[in-house]
Structure prediction request, 247 residues.
Amino acid sequence: MSLPRARFDQFRLAMMLLTRLPVGRISGAVPAMDKARWAFPLVGLVIGGIGWGVFAAAVTFGLSSVIAAILALLATALATGGMHFDGLADFADGWGGGSDRARTLEIMRDSRIGSYGVLALILFSALLAAGISEVASATAFLLAGVGSRLAMLLALVFMPPARADGLGRMAAGKGEASLIAGTLVCAVLVILAGTTGAFALIGAGLAMIVIGHSATRRIGGQTGDVLGAIQLASETAIWIFLATSAH
Prediction:
């Protein structure tokens, strides 16, 4: 298989893993998850583009920026199947109800959402909608989409898996080269966004570090739920930093 074809199949696998968008079937051997993870940040370009398209259309039809932001958030959640929201909820429940590693992992695996998870979903959704309504632009949506998934990829590269199964195990492993594509795209977006974009990425990094450090101490590494929490917390941090820098 040629390198361009292999890269395209890896990108399609990344789309299948992180979204519910149709990308066709992969003919032949399916790439390994750890080979496709380089494309995770690029998936953010697609999701960010969807968010911006819905927001711009809503504003064009005369809706307020707040309503447009909520609709954009809904569109991106539907496009991803809400998987990062689910990860955040499970992470919050595990941290709120788990007293040790085993109990925390048990709660996080439970598909039911508890009070901590509900509270986290409400708070983060409100922060996202507020931030989007303040500073929405095509560049901001793309930066939030790519930057938050680059934070998730960083966790995959530098954090050990806490379970013997799941996405966190199958896509984990050393390999800094997988960060190149996402880093380059973020660099371009920061140039377009200016200083505020750089501060926003710092905010995403801080969110990743806080959650990653907490997960390493509590359960020994990352899981799919931890990755989902990192993505959504990083995205929220980006919007908050962009909104703060705009004032």
